[in-house]
Specification:
The protein is of the alpha/beta class. The chain folds into two domains: 162 residues, Rossmann fold (3-Layer(aba) Sandwich), CATH 3.40.50; 125 residues, N-(1-d-carboxylethyl)-l-norvaline Dehydrogenase, domain 2, CATH 1.10.1040. 51% of the residues lie in helices and 14% in strands. The chain has 13 helices and nine strands. Helix 1 packs parallel to helix 2 and helix 9 packs across helix 12. The longest helix has 29 residues.
Length: 295
Amino acid sequence: MTQNVALIGAGAMGGAIGTRLAQVGHNLTVFDLDAEKVAELVARGAKASASAADAAAVSDYVIVSLNSARIVDLAVFGAEGVASGAKPGTVIIDMSSIDPESTKDLAAKAAAQGLRWVDSPLSGGAPKALIGELTLMAGGEAKDVEDAHNVLKDVASNYTHMGPSGAGQTTKLINQVLCGLGFLAVAEATQLALDAGVDAAKIPQALKGGRADSALLQEYMPRFVAKDYRKTGRIDNMVKDLNGAQDLARLTNTAMPLTAVCAEVHRMLTAAGLGGEDQAALMEYFKGPDRSQFS
C-alpha cells in the first residue's frame, strides 16, 4: 500500500532507505541540508521540501535518519522541525543510532505534542536497505510499532518489537558490540592468514557452515584480503556506537573488557584520519614490517 512518507536525513543510510521507498512506490518527501543528496532522491521519484516541517505536513509517517541525538532533537523539535508541521497522530520513526536515554526523552516530548515515536535502528547497512532486507529492532508502544511496519516492511525482512521506547536502541547497541568485535576478529584472523602464507581468500569457503562461519566472515574477509575499502559504513560511526555501549555498561555496571579494546582500536584509526572509511580499513591497523620470511 502506498503511504505518504517524509524522510529527514538523506545521507548514506537515509539515501538508501529513501531510494528503496521511492522504488516501491511510496509518496516520498525529502528534507536534508545537503541539496545534492536531496537531488539524488528527487531523480529517483521523491519530492524535495524546504523544511522538515513542510515535509511532515504532507506525510503520515516521518522517517528520521541522522547522526546524533542532538541533531535528531533539533530536526524534530527545533525551529521548522518535524513537530511544528506534523499532524496529530503522525508516526515518527527514528532510524538513527542514538542512546536509549535520549530516545526515551524524545518519545516523551513527541507524546506531549500528540505525536507517536518509534525507535527503529537498523542492521544491514545501505546494501540491505536497497533490497529491502534490513534487520530492524523497534521500541515503542505496540500499536505504534505495528503501524510503523506499514512503511518499514518495504525496507526490512526482519522486524522485531523489543519493548518500550529505547528498547530498539538498546538492542542496536548490543548489535554493534557484536559487529565491532566481529569486524576486528575477522580482520585480525585475515592478517594472521596472510602473514602465515595461507590463501586467506579461500578461508570463507573453507569455514562455511562451521562454528566460525558468519555473515561478517563471508562478506568481509574477501574485502580485507583485497583491501577493498569501498564505503558502506564508517569507522567513526562504530566509535559512536561503542561509546554508547560503554555508557550503557557504566549505568548497568556491566564488565565489557573486549568492547573496551575494540573501541580503542576504532578510536586510534579515527585519530589517524580513517574515521570516514569503511570497516574494511581496519586492515590498516595491522600494517607493519614485511613478515614474508615467516610464510
